[in-house]
From TrEMBL:
InterPro entries: Diguanylate_Cyclase (IPR050469), GGDEF_dom (IPR000160), NTF2-like_dom_sf (IPR032710), Nucleotide_cyclase (IPR029787), Rev_trsase/Diguanyl_cyclase (IPR043128), SnoaL-like (IPR037401). It comes from the Bacteria. One of its GO terms (biological process) is negative regulation of bacterial-type flagellum-dependent cell motility. The lineage of its organism: Bacteria, Pseudomonadati, Pseudomonadota, Gammaproteobacteria, Chromatiales. This is diguanylate cyclase. Its EC number is 2.7.7.65. Gene3D superfamilies: 3.10.450.50, 3.30.70.270. It catalyses: 2 GTP = 3',3'-c-di-GMP + 2 diphosphate. Residues 211-340 form the GGDEF domain. One of its GO terms (molecular function) is diguanylate cyclase activity. GO terms for cellular component: plasma membrane.
Amino acid sequence: MEQADRNQLNEAVNQAFLRYLDTWLRKRDAAALHDLNGPLVHGFGTGANESVYDPDEAREVIERDISQVPEPFEYAVRTAKVTPLCTDVALVAADIGIRNTILAQGQELALDHLRLTLVFRYIDGAWRLEHLHGSFPATEPDGEEAWPLQALEDRAAVLQRKVWERYRAQEAARQCEEGQASTDALTGLPNRERMDELLHREVAGLNGQSGALAVILIDIDHLNLVNEGLGQEAGDRVLADVANILRDRIRVTDALARWGGGAFLLACPMTDGLEAEYLARALRRAVAETDFGLGFPLTASFGVTALQAGDTVPGLIRRAERGLRQAKEAGRDTVQVVCREEIVPG
C-alpha cells in the first residue's frame, strides 16, 4: 500500500472511530449506533454482562447501556492509533477519559484510561465496527469486580477530606486576620485579592509541579446588556445567582472568587487540564440551562488552564485569560482550554 493511500485510509478509519465514540458517549443514540455496526459485530465491554457474539446481543447490550444511563458523557481521547491490517480492515487502539453526571442518582461518574480495541471493516461504502473490547488498567481486582471502584472511591474520599481540612485551616487563619475586608459584598465570595493570595500560597507550596493545580476563568456573557436594558439591580441579581450556581456545583476542595465585573475565578487543587475541562463544561451547561427570569437566555464563557513546571501565578492567570478571550471569539457560551502552550513569564 502506498503511503498516500495508507494516510487516506488512516484518516477515514479515525473519523469512523470518532463518529462511533460521539454517537455512543455524547449523543447516546442507540439506533444510530446500530447503523455503525457491521453484520458480524462482537466484543466485550467492561461490565460482567457485556459479552457480545452477534448483532442481536450487541443491540441488547447497547440499548440496556443507554437506557440505564441516558445522560451524555463528556470524553477526551488521550491516545488513538490506527493500524491497517489490509485494504478493508483496520485496528484502532485508544485510551480515553470519560465523565458523566447521573442525574437520577445525583452522582458524577469519572473514569480515566478506558482502553478500547476496535476493529473496523469497510462494508457497503463505509467503515463499520466489527469488534470492540473495552477494559480498565486494574491491578487490584475485588471479587468479581473488574475495576476496584469502591477501593478507589474510598482512597479519593480520604484524600479529599485531608485537602479540605487543610484548606479550612488556612481559611480560618486567614479570616481571623482579614475579617470581612476580603469578601465580595454582593456575592459573598472571596474577592480578587484574597484569591490572588491563595493562588500564590498554592503555587509556592507545589513548587511549580505540573498538573497539580488548574484554574478556570468564568465571565458572564453580555452582562452589560442586562445592566443597560434592565437596570443595575437586575445585573446584581444575575451576578449573585451565577455565584450560587457555581458555588453549589464545585467540589469541596475547589476555591471560587469574584474576580471583578462579571468574572469569577475558580482554583482547583490536584486537578489537571482534562479534569478542569470536564468541570468547566458541567458549569457552562448549568448556567445555560438556568432561567434567570430575564426574558432571554443567559450564558457564560470559560477559559481553562493548568499549572506547568516552573509556572507562576501571573503566567497561569494570563493563560486562563487567553482561553477566555478565545471562548468569547468563538461565539461565547463555550469552554476553551490553554494548557500546552509555552509558559507566559511572570
